[in-house]
Specification:
Layout: H1 2-8, E1 10-11, H2 19-25, E2 30-33, H3 41-58, E3 62-65, H4 69-80, H5 89-93, H6 107-122, E4 130-133, H7 139-153, H8 158-168, H9 175-184, H10 190-202, H11 213-234, H12 238-260, E5 266-269, H13 272-275, H14 291-298, E6 304-318, E7 327-331, H15 339-346, E8 351-354, E9 367-370, E10 386-389, H16 391-394, E11 397-404
Helix pairs in contact: 1-15, 3-6, 4-6, 7-8, 7-11, 8-10, 9-11, 10-11, 11-12
Protein backbone atom coordinates (compact mmCIF):
# COMPACT_ATOMS: atom_id res chain seq x y z
CA UNK A 1 0.00 0.00 0.00
CA UNK A 2 2.74 2.47 0.97
CA UNK A 3 4.74 1.82 -2.19
CA UNK A 4 1.64 2.17 -4.37
CA UNK A 5 0.77 5.52 -2.75
CA UNK A 6 4.34 6.76 -3.32
CA UNK A 7 4.10 5.67 -6.94
CA UNK A 8 0.77 7.28 -7.83
CA UNK A 9 0.08 10.21 -5.50
CA UNK A 10 1.15 13.71 -6.51
CA UNK A 11 1.89 16.61 -4.15
CA UNK A 12 -0.06 19.85 -4.45
CA UNK A 13 0.21 23.27 -2.87
CA UNK A 14 -2.64 25.17 -4.54
CA UNK A 15 -5.72 24.65 -6.66
CA UNK A 16 -3.58 25.19 -9.77
CA UNK A 17 -1.70 22.00 -8.94
CA UNK A 18 -4.96 20.07 -9.26
CA UNK A 19 -5.17 20.48 -13.04
CA UNK A 20 -4.82 16.68 -13.52
CA UNK A 21 -7.90 16.18 -11.32
CA UNK A 22 -9.93 18.72 -13.29
CA UNK A 23 -8.79 17.08 -16.51
CA UNK A 24 -9.70 13.53 -15.49
CA UNK A 25 -13.17 14.65 -14.34
CA UNK A 26 -13.72 15.22 -18.04
CA UNK A 27 -17.38 15.50 -19.05
CA UNK A 28 -18.81 13.98 -15.88
CA UNK A 29 -22.20 15.43 -14.92
CA UNK A 30 -22.04 14.55 -11.23
CA UNK A 31 -18.95 15.43 -9.19
CA UNK A 32 -19.20 14.42 -5.53
CA UNK A 33 -16.79 16.17 -3.16
CA UNK A 34 -16.48 14.54 0.24
CA UNK A 35 -15.00 15.50 3.58
CA UNK A 36 -13.66 13.46 6.48
CA UNK A 37 -15.32 15.80 8.99
CA UNK A 38 -17.90 18.60 9.11
CA UNK A 39 -15.49 20.85 10.97
CA UNK A 40 -12.27 21.13 8.95
CA UNK A 41 -11.39 24.43 7.29
CA UNK A 42 -9.28 23.03 4.45
CA UNK A 43 -11.99 20.64 3.31
CA UNK A 44 -14.32 23.60 2.79
CA UNK A 45 -11.79 25.91 1.15
CA UNK A 46 -10.40 23.23 -1.18
CA UNK A 47 -13.89 22.14 -2.25
CA UNK A 48 -14.82 25.79 -2.79
CA UNK A 49 -11.88 26.34 -5.15
CA UNK A 50 -12.64 23.12 -7.03
CA UNK A 51 -16.28 24.19 -7.25
CA UNK A 52 -15.34 27.54 -8.78
CA UNK A 53 -13.22 25.84 -11.41
CA UNK A 54 -15.92 23.31 -12.26
CA UNK A 55 -18.45 26.12 -12.71
CA UNK A 56 -16.16 28.27 -14.83
CA UNK A 57 -14.38 25.60 -16.86
CA UNK A 58 -16.91 22.74 -17.02
CA UNK A 59 -20.29 24.50 -16.97
CA UNK A 60 -21.64 23.14 -13.68
CA UNK A 61 -24.80 24.90 -12.51
CA UNK A 62 -26.04 23.10 -9.36
CA UNK A 63 -24.39 22.88 -5.95
CA UNK A 64 -26.20 20.39 -3.70
CA UNK A 65 -25.08 20.03 -0.08
CA UNK A 66 -25.67 18.11 3.14
CA UNK A 67 -27.90 20.81 4.58
CA UNK A 68 -31.58 21.60 5.18
CA UNK A 69 -33.57 22.71 2.14
CA UNK A 70 -35.24 25.78 3.75
CA UNK A 71 -31.98 27.11 5.20
CA UNK A 72 -30.05 26.59 1.97
CA UNK A 73 -32.74 28.51 0.13
CA UNK A 74 -31.45 31.64 1.87
CA UNK A 75 -28.14 31.19 0.03
CA UNK A 76 -29.83 30.17 -3.22
CA UNK A 77 -32.03 33.26 -3.24
CA UNK A 78 -29.12 35.50 -2.26
CA UNK A 79 -26.81 34.35 -5.06
CA UNK A 80 -29.65 34.57 -7.61
CA UNK A 81 -30.95 37.95 -6.46
CA UNK A 82 -34.39 36.56 -5.63
CA UNK A 83 -36.59 38.40 -3.14
CA UNK A 84 -35.66 41.38 -0.96
CA UNK A 85 -32.00 42.33 -1.02
CA UNK A 86 -29.96 41.47 2.04
CA UNK A 87 -26.99 43.71 2.61
CA UNK A 88 -24.83 41.39 4.64
CA UNK A 89 -23.93 37.75 3.97
CA UNK A 90 -23.95 37.03 7.70
CA UNK A 91 -27.66 37.86 7.74
CA UNK A 92 -28.16 35.28 4.99
CA UNK A 93 -26.30 32.63 6.99
CA UNK A 94 -28.45 33.26 10.07
CA UNK A 95 -30.96 30.94 8.39
CA UNK A 96 -28.72 28.07 9.48
CA UNK A 97 -29.97 27.94 13.04
CA UNK A 98 -30.30 24.18 13.46
CA UNK A 99 -27.56 22.41 15.37
CA UNK A 100 -24.85 21.85 14.15
CA UNK A 101 -24.95 25.43 12.84
CA UNK A 102 -21.23 25.51 12.06
CA UNK A 103 -21.63 23.25 9.02
CA UNK A 104 -22.83 26.19 6.91
CA UNK A 105 -22.76 29.24 9.20
CA UNK A 106 -18.99 29.58 8.96
CA UNK A 107 -16.44 32.05 7.66
CA UNK A 108 -15.08 29.66 5.03
CA UNK A 109 -18.38 29.49 3.14
CA UNK A 110 -18.69 33.28 2.90
CA UNK A 111 -16.10 33.61 0.14
CA UNK A 112 -17.80 30.99 -2.02
CA UNK A 113 -21.27 32.48 -1.56
CA UNK A 114 -20.08 35.97 -2.49
CA UNK A 115 -18.23 34.54 -5.49
CA UNK A 116 -21.39 32.73 -6.64
CA UNK A 117 -23.46 35.89 -6.36
CA UNK A 118 -20.90 37.84 -8.39
CA UNK A 119 -20.64 35.05 -10.98
CA UNK A 120 -24.42 34.91 -11.44
CA UNK A 121 -24.67 38.70 -11.79
CA UNK A 122 -22.06 38.74 -14.56
CA UNK A 123 -23.02 35.49 -16.28
CA UNK A 124 -25.04 35.33 -19.49
CA UNK A 125 -26.05 31.74 -18.86
CA UNK A 126 -29.73 30.87 -19.18
CA UNK A 127 -29.69 29.08 -15.82
CA UNK A 128 -27.96 30.75 -12.89
CA UNK A 129 -25.90 28.63 -10.55
CA UNK A 130 -28.05 27.38 -7.65
CA UNK A 131 -27.30 26.24 -4.10
CA UNK A 132 -29.61 23.59 -2.61
CA UNK A 133 -29.86 21.54 0.59
CA UNK A 134 -30.62 17.84 0.28
CA UNK A 135 -31.05 16.71 3.88
CA UNK A 136 -34.19 15.33 5.51
CA UNK A 137 -34.26 16.93 8.96
CA UNK A 138 -36.38 20.05 8.29
CA UNK A 139 -39.83 18.51 8.84
CA UNK A 140 -41.39 21.45 10.67
CA UNK A 141 -39.60 24.16 8.70
CA UNK A 142 -40.63 22.61 5.39
CA UNK A 143 -44.27 22.43 6.47
CA UNK A 144 -44.03 26.07 7.56
CA UNK A 145 -42.75 27.01 4.10
CA UNK A 146 -45.62 25.18 2.39
CA UNK A 147 -48.31 26.65 4.63
CA UNK A 148 -46.90 30.17 4.37
CA UNK A 149 -46.84 30.07 0.57
CA UNK A 150 -50.28 28.48 0.13
CA UNK A 151 -51.94 30.86 2.57
CA UNK A 152 -50.36 33.84 0.83
CA UNK A 153 -51.06 32.71 -2.72
CA UNK A 154 -54.40 30.92 -2.27
CA UNK A 155 -53.30 28.06 -4.51
CA UNK A 156 -54.80 24.53 -4.24
CA UNK A 157 -53.39 22.23 -1.60
CA UNK A 158 -54.00 24.39 1.45
CA UNK A 159 -56.50 21.90 2.92
CA UNK A 160 -54.00 19.02 2.66
CA UNK A 161 -51.25 21.22 4.12
CA UNK A 162 -53.38 22.21 7.12
CA UNK A 163 -54.41 18.59 7.64
CA UNK A 164 -50.76 17.47 7.69
CA UNK A 165 -49.74 20.32 9.97
CA UNK A 166 -52.59 19.48 12.39
CA UNK A 167 -51.46 15.87 12.54
CA UNK A 168 -47.89 16.82 13.49
CA UNK A 169 -48.87 19.74 15.74
CA UNK A 170 -49.39 17.71 18.97
CA UNK A 171 -45.70 16.75 18.96
CA UNK A 172 -44.65 20.37 19.60
CA UNK A 173 -41.96 20.34 16.92
CA UNK A 174 -40.13 17.61 18.80
CA UNK A 175 -38.67 14.96 16.52
CA UNK A 176 -38.07 12.49 19.32
CA UNK A 177 -41.68 12.68 20.49
CA UNK A 178 -42.95 11.95 17.01
CA UNK A 179 -40.38 9.19 16.51
CA UNK A 180 -41.44 7.35 19.67
CA UNK A 181 -45.15 7.76 18.94
CA UNK A 182 -44.86 6.67 15.30
CA UNK A 183 -42.27 3.95 15.78
CA UNK A 184 -43.58 2.25 18.90
CA UNK A 185 -47.25 3.23 19.16
CA UNK A 186 -48.13 3.31 15.45
CA UNK A 187 -49.62 6.77 15.92
CA UNK A 188 -48.28 8.45 12.81
CA UNK A 189 -48.96 10.96 10.05
CA UNK A 190 -48.04 8.79 7.05
CA UNK A 191 -51.31 9.33 5.20
CA UNK A 192 -51.37 13.09 5.78
CA UNK A 193 -47.74 13.52 4.62
CA UNK A 194 -48.28 11.46 1.47
CA UNK A 195 -51.52 13.25 0.62
CA UNK A 196 -49.71 16.58 0.94
CA UNK A 197 -46.93 15.44 -1.41
CA UNK A 198 -49.47 14.13 -3.95
CA UNK A 199 -51.39 17.41 -3.83
CA UNK A 200 -48.27 19.54 -4.32
CA UNK A 201 -47.11 17.43 -7.24
CA UNK A 202 -50.56 17.46 -8.79
CA UNK A 203 -50.67 21.25 -8.68
CA UNK A 204 -46.95 21.96 -9.16
CA UNK A 205 -47.42 23.73 -12.48
CA UNK A 206 -49.57 26.38 -10.77
CA UNK A 207 -46.66 27.41 -8.54
CA UNK A 208 -44.23 28.01 -11.42
CA UNK A 209 -42.64 31.47 -11.47
CA UNK A 210 -39.24 33.14 -11.67
CA UNK A 211 -38.65 32.60 -7.95
CA UNK A 212 -38.54 28.78 -8.20
CA UNK A 213 -41.67 28.34 -6.08
CA UNK A 214 -42.72 25.15 -7.90
CA UNK A 215 -39.39 23.51 -7.04
CA UNK A 216 -39.42 24.91 -3.52
CA UNK A 217 -42.92 23.56 -2.87
CA UNK A 218 -42.18 20.14 -4.34
CA UNK A 219 -38.97 19.56 -2.39
CA UNK A 220 -40.48 20.81 0.87
CA UNK A 221 -43.30 18.31 0.35
CA UNK A 222 -40.75 15.55 -0.38
CA UNK A 223 -38.96 16.51 2.85
CA UNK A 224 -42.22 16.31 4.80
CA UNK A 225 -43.01 12.82 3.50
CA UNK A 226 -39.50 11.44 3.90
CA UNK A 227 -38.81 13.14 7.24
CA UNK A 228 -41.97 11.51 8.62
CA UNK A 229 -40.60 8.14 7.48
CA UNK A 230 -37.10 8.92 8.77
CA UNK A 231 -38.23 9.83 12.29
CA UNK A 232 -40.69 6.94 12.39
CA UNK A 233 -37.91 4.54 11.40
CA UNK A 234 -34.98 5.85 13.44
CA UNK A 235 -36.12 4.40 16.78
CA UNK A 236 -36.42 0.94 15.23
CA UNK A 237 -33.41 0.64 12.91
CA UNK A 238 -30.28 2.75 12.50
CA UNK A 239 -29.43 1.19 9.15
CA UNK A 240 -32.92 1.64 7.69
CA UNK A 241 -33.20 5.26 8.86
CA UNK A 242 -29.80 5.88 7.25
CA UNK A 243 -31.14 4.44 4.00
CA UNK A 244 -34.27 6.60 4.19
CA UNK A 245 -32.10 9.68 4.61
CA UNK A 246 -29.71 8.94 1.73
CA UNK A 247 -32.49 7.86 -0.62
CA UNK A 248 -34.25 11.11 0.24
CA UNK A 249 -31.17 13.13 -0.66
CA UNK A 250 -31.05 11.52 -4.09
CA UNK A 251 -34.81 12.03 -4.60
CA UNK A 252 -34.46 15.72 -3.71
CA UNK A 253 -31.46 16.00 -6.04
CA UNK A 254 -33.43 14.41 -8.88
CA UNK A 255 -36.19 16.99 -8.39
CA UNK A 256 -33.61 19.78 -8.71
CA UNK A 257 -31.94 18.37 -11.82
CA UNK A 258 -35.32 17.81 -13.48
CA UNK A 259 -36.24 21.43 -12.72
CA UNK A 260 -33.06 22.68 -14.41
CA UNK A 261 -33.03 20.01 -17.11
CA UNK A 262 -31.69 16.49 -17.03
CA UNK A 263 -28.40 17.53 -18.64
CA UNK A 264 -27.52 19.95 -15.83
CA UNK A 265 -24.18 19.35 -14.13
CA UNK A 266 -24.15 18.87 -10.36
CA UNK A 267 -21.53 19.36 -7.64
CA UNK A 268 -22.37 17.57 -4.38
CA UNK A 269 -20.80 18.48 -1.02
CA UNK A 270 -21.32 15.80 1.64
CA UNK A 271 -19.39 13.74 4.16
CA UNK A 272 -17.27 10.88 2.82
CA UNK A 273 -19.71 8.46 4.42
CA UNK A 274 -22.41 9.73 2.05
CA UNK A 275 -20.45 10.25 -1.18
CA UNK A 276 -17.95 7.35 -1.03
CA UNK A 277 -19.66 4.29 -2.56
CA UNK A 278 -21.13 2.25 0.32
CA UNK A 279 -20.55 -1.00 -1.60
CA UNK A 280 -16.79 -0.54 -1.03
CA UNK A 281 -17.20 -0.42 2.77
CA UNK A 282 -18.60 -2.51 5.61
CA UNK A 283 -21.89 -0.65 5.12
CA UNK A 284 -22.78 -3.16 2.40
CA UNK A 285 -22.83 -6.07 4.87
CA UNK A 286 -25.26 -4.11 7.05
CA UNK A 287 -27.64 -3.51 4.15
CA UNK A 288 -26.88 0.21 3.99
CA UNK A 289 -26.72 2.37 0.86
CA UNK A 290 -25.57 5.93 0.34
CA UNK A 291 -25.71 8.83 -2.09
CA UNK A 292 -22.55 7.87 -3.96
CA UNK A 293 -23.76 4.33 -4.54
CA UNK A 294 -27.26 5.40 -5.59
CA UNK A 295 -26.00 7.99 -8.08
CA UNK A 296 -23.54 5.51 -9.56
CA UNK A 297 -26.40 3.04 -9.95
CA UNK A 298 -28.72 5.50 -11.69
CA UNK A 299 -26.17 7.19 -13.97
CA UNK A 300 -23.69 5.96 -16.62
CA UNK A 301 -20.22 5.33 -15.12
CA UNK A 302 -18.61 8.14 -17.11
CA UNK A 303 -21.09 10.67 -15.71
CA UNK A 304 -20.11 10.23 -12.03
CA UNK A 305 -16.83 11.21 -10.36
CA UNK A 306 -16.30 10.89 -6.59
CA UNK A 307 -13.53 12.63 -4.65
CA UNK A 308 -12.76 11.64 -1.06
CA UNK A 309 -10.92 13.85 1.43
CA UNK A 310 -8.82 13.08 4.48
CA UNK A 311 -6.19 14.34 6.92
CA UNK A 312 -3.44 12.94 9.12
CA UNK A 313 -3.69 15.33 12.09
CA UNK A 314 -4.65 18.84 13.16
CA UNK A 315 -7.71 20.41 14.76
CA UNK A 316 -11.45 20.18 14.11
CA UNK A 317 -14.76 21.71 15.23
CA UNK A 318 -17.07 19.14 16.83
CA UNK A 319 -19.05 18.40 20.00
CA UNK A 320 -18.67 15.71 22.62
CA UNK A 321 -22.41 15.05 22.64
CA UNK A 322 -25.33 15.73 20.32
CA UNK A 323 -26.68 19.26 20.74
CA UNK A 324 -24.02 20.63 23.08
CA UNK A 325 -21.71 23.56 22.34
CA UNK A 326 -19.00 23.00 19.78
CA UNK A 327 -15.32 23.19 20.62
CA UNK A 328 -11.98 23.07 18.87
CA UNK A 329 -10.61 19.55 19.31
CA UNK A 330 -7.25 18.04 18.47
CA UNK A 331 -7.27 15.43 15.72
CA UNK A 332 -4.65 12.88 16.79
CA UNK A 333 -2.23 11.36 14.30
CA UNK A 334 -4.03 8.77 12.20
CA UNK A 335 -4.13 5.24 13.54
CA UNK A 336 -1.19 3.09 12.48
CA UNK A 337 -2.05 0.98 9.44
CA UNK A 338 -4.91 3.27 8.32
CA UNK A 339 -5.24 4.91 4.91
CA UNK A 340 -4.33 8.31 6.33
CA UNK A 341 -1.33 6.84 8.15
CA UNK A 342 0.14 5.44 4.94
CA UNK A 343 -0.45 8.70 3.06
CA UNK A 344 1.45 10.55 5.77
CA UNK A 345 4.25 7.98 5.66
CA UNK A 346 4.45 8.46 1.89
CA UNK A 347 5.05 12.17 2.44
CA UNK A 348 4.03 14.67 5.11
CA UNK A 349 2.53 17.08 2.58
CA UNK A 350 -0.72 17.57 0.67
CA UNK A 351 -1.36 14.93 -1.99
CA UNK A 352 -3.85 14.03 -4.71
CA UNK A 353 -4.24 10.43 -5.83
CA UNK A 354 -6.21 9.49 -8.95
CA UNK A 355 -7.59 5.97 -9.22
CA UNK A 356 -7.78 4.55 -12.74
CA UNK A 357 -7.61 1.31 -14.68
CA UNK A 358 -3.83 1.19 -14.43
CA UNK A 359 -3.69 1.28 -10.63
CA UNK A 360 -7.08 0.13 -9.29
CA UNK A 361 -5.80 -3.35 -8.53
CA UNK A 362 -3.08 -1.91 -6.27
CA UNK A 363 -5.70 -0.37 -3.95
CA UNK A 364 -8.13 -3.27 -3.51
CA UNK A 365 -7.01 -4.17 0.00
CA UNK A 366 -9.54 -3.25 2.68
CA UNK A 367 -8.09 -0.57 4.94
CA UNK A 368 -9.35 1.64 7.77
CA UNK A 369 -10.34 5.14 6.61
CA UNK A 370 -11.01 7.82 9.25
CA UNK A 371 -14.44 9.47 9.52
CA UNK A 372 -15.14 12.24 12.04
CA UNK A 373 -18.74 13.25 12.75
CA UNK A 374 -20.30 16.29 14.41
CA UNK A 375 -20.05 14.28 17.64
CA UNK A 376 -16.43 13.30 18.22
CA UNK A 377 -14.35 11.95 21.09
CA UNK A 378 -10.73 11.89 19.86
CA UNK A 379 -9.56 9.74 22.73
CA UNK A 380 -11.92 6.97 21.66
CA UNK A 381 -11.69 7.27 17.88
CA UNK A 382 -9.99 3.90 17.42
CA UNK A 383 -13.23 2.23 18.60
CA UNK A 384 -15.38 3.42 15.72
CA UNK A 385 -14.01 6.25 13.59
CA UNK A 386 -12.30 4.08 10.97
CA UNK A 387 -14.46 2.70 8.17
CA UNK A 388 -13.07 -0.45 6.47
CA UNK A 389 -12.84 0.60 2.82
CA UNK A 390 -11.60 -0.50 -0.58
CA UNK A 391 -10.32 2.91 -1.62
CA UNK A 392 -10.12 2.49 -5.41
CA UNK A 393 -13.73 1.26 -5.45
CA UNK A 394 -15.04 3.83 -2.99
CA UNK A 395 -13.64 6.88 -4.81
CA UNK A 396 -12.33 7.97 -8.19
CA UNK A 397 -9.78 10.29 -6.57
CA UNK A 398 -8.57 11.22 -3.10
CA UNK A 399 -7.31 14.53 -1.73
CA UNK A 400 -5.11 14.27 1.35
CA UNK A 401 -4.30 17.35 3.42
CA UNK A 402 -1.62 16.32 5.86
CA UNK A 403 -2.26 18.84 8.64
CA UNK A 404 -5.60 20.62 8.90
CA UNK A 405 -7.22 23.35 10.98
CA UNK A 406 -10.61 23.77 12.61
CA UNK A 407 -13.43 25.46 10.74
CA UNK A 408 -14.29 29.03 11.79
CA UNK A 409 -17.97 29.09 12.87
CA UNK A 410 -20.17 32.16 12.98
CA UNK A 411 -21.66 32.23 16.46
CA UNK A 412 -25.46 32.34 16.28
CA UNK A 413 -27.65 33.25 19.22
CA UNK A 414 -30.60 30.93 18.49
CA UNK A 415 -29.95 27.26 17.90
CA UNK A 416 -32.61 24.62 17.14
CA UNK A 417 -31.83 20.99 17.98
Amino acid sequence: MLESIKKYSKPFESILDLDPLIEVIGDAKYVLLGEASHGTSEFYTTRAELTKRLIKEKGFSIIAVEGDWPSCQSINRYIKGIGPAKRDIREVLEAFNRWPTWMWANKEIINLVEWLRDFNEKSSRKQKVGFYGLDVYSLWESMDEILRYLEKSGHPGLAEAKKAFSCFEPYNRNHESYAVSAGYLSENCIQEAMELLASIRRNKWIFEDDEENSLNMEVNAIVTANAEKYYRTMVLSDSESWNVRDRHMVEALNAVTKYYDNDAKVIIWEHNTHVGDARATDMKAEGMVNVGQLIREQQPPEDVFIVGFGTYSGTVIASEEWGVNFEVMNVPPAQKGSWEYFLHQAGAYNQCLLFNESNTAEFLETIGHRAIGVVYRPEYEHFGNYVPSVMSKRYDAFIFIDKTNALQPLVLEKVIL
